[in-house]
Amino acid sequence: MRYNERELLSLARQPAEKAAEIRMSVPKKGNVLKKRLVKLVVNFLFYFRTDEAEPIGALLLEHCKITKEEENVFSISFIEEPERKYCFECATKEQCQEWVEALRRASYEFLRRSLIFYRNEIQKMTGKDPLEQYGISEEARFQLGAHRQ
C-alpha cells in the first residue's frame, strides 16, 4: 500500500482509541518479545519504542486476522501474507480480550458493515433513509443497496 509518511506520522500523534505498553514480536525478528507502546488510531496500529515519540512501525488493520492465541496473547496476521504474523503479550487475559475486540472493530470493513446495519435498522423504525438528510446520492451510498437483507 502506498502512503504519505508525513500524514502517517501526523496520524500517529492523534489521540488513541486504545494505547498500552505491551510486549510484541515482529515477523522479521523471530519470536523475541520486546516491550512496546502500542497505539490504535482509527484503523492503524502504531508501535513505538517506549522511550521514543516517533513510531517504529504501523499496521494497517485491513484484510487481517486477529487471533487470540493464549490466555493473554493475541496475534495479527494478514490474509494475503499469513506468514507475516505479529504477536502481542498482554499483562492479563482481560487486557488481551479488550485489545482483540478493539482491533476487530477498527477495520474499514467492520465500520462499513455497521453503517449498513444501523442504516437499515433506522430505516425500518422510521421509514426514512437516514443518509438522505446529508444529500448522499443513491450510487454513493457505499453500495448499500446491494447488501440489504
Automatic annotation (TrEMBL):
Q: Which InterPro entries match?
A: Boi1/Boi2-like (IPR045188), PH-like_dom_sf (IPR011993), PH_domain (IPR001849)
Task: Give GO cellular component annotations, separated by semicolons.
Answer: cytosol; early endosome; recycling endosome; trans-Golgi network
Query: Which GO BP terms apply?
Result: endosome organization; receptor recycling; retrograde transport, endosome to Golgi
Domain PH stretches: 19-108
Q: Which domain of life is it from?
A: Eukaryota
Entry-linked Gene3D superfamilies: Pleckstrin-homology domain (PH domain)/Phosphotyrosine-binding domain (PTB) (2.30.29.30)
Q: Which SUPFAM superfamilies match?
A: PH domain-like
Q: Which SMART domains does this UniProt record tie to the protein?
A: PH (SM00233)
Protein name per Swiss-Prot or TrEMBL:
Pleckstrin homology domain-containing family J member 1
Q: Which gene encodes it?
A: Plekhj1
